[in-house]
Amino acid sequence: MPALKGKFEFRKSQRTTRRSLLFTLGYCLMLSTVLSSCGEAKNNTQQSTATPESTASSSSTTEKSTEKQVVRIVRSKQLTALAVLEKQGSLEKRLEPLGFKVQWPEFAAGPQQLEALNANGLDIASTAESPPVFSQAAGAPLVYLSTTRPSGKAISLLVPVNSPIKSVADLKGKKVAFQKASIGHYLLVKALEDAGLKLSDVQSVFLTPPDANAAFSQSKVDAWYIWEPFATRNVQNKIARVLADGGKLRDTGNFYSTSRQFYQAHPDVIKVFLEELEKAEIWTKDHPKEVAQLLAPVTQLDVPTLEIMHKKYDYGLLPITDKTITKQQEVADKWYSLGLIPKKVNVKEGFLTPEEYAKITPSEVLANK
After folding, report:
1. CATH number belonging to the domain at 153-245, selected among 3.90.420.10, 3.90.79.10, 3.40.50.410, 3.40.190.10
2. Is pLDDT above 50 for 40?
3. Edge to edge, what strands does the sheet with 240-245 contain?
């Protein structure tokens, strides 16, 4: 009996195994059929949607081909013709037929603008004389486009309203804040030299304008060389008084500049920009009240104050001349003599030829030579 029982169980096991195998085989065949059907359905779906996707891609390409290019011009938050130009919107209208739209990015100061210019984050910058020198010293392929009148009274050396400091000579050993490589930096050097001091006679505190504003208001520095509207705001709020301005010290103007790449690619855009800017300069000079009303929200100062401030500026572009280049070389040599740039800079490498300037400079500006 045990033997028969074992034989019976063995045959039963065989039948069970066969049934399992048949079931597994059948299941696999069914699964294969389902997967195959799904695959075909997926392929059919992909094929059926291929044409719309291709059409969408083609449509996207067409849209991109008609999309306007962008020229990025630094935003001015001062009482300047550049700020007026943005508000008036005339530049956008002139550039539209050329296939360009305008963006107005903001930067803390000139050095930050030129860093962005070199990194292809900005196309047209507006700075004082020193930032371009530092940029050239760093090897940036910068191009000077136009210059302005000095407007030295719009830059002020501030001290706290109750400070015992009465003259520039009193700054010896004191903490003076300014944006490195800015007009404030340059005018401080000149002011100290006039007082018989050197830059090393004061404690230089390199701060961007917003950071310097905070440090000055918290009495963390003894003086601050800064431009408008920071100076007037602090004087109005009785935080500061003006120790000296740049009226007698400043003998250079600001510069509009671009990268060599942008100049070579879009001289037509630059020409239009300078033409519209010069129109804005003339309008700004002749309409102090309207300018004040237009830029009150930008500067965060009231209209009467802006009308008074208007007198601190001298408006109008100036052409690039040999005298301009010579003066800019003096600025570069000054920074090199102080050891603040690593090599002697030949500023002429950033200037165009007279023939090239004649093609982009407004005729009324060229007439000022």
Report:
1. 3.40.190.10
2. no
3. 203-206, 175-178, 223-227, 155-160, 240-245
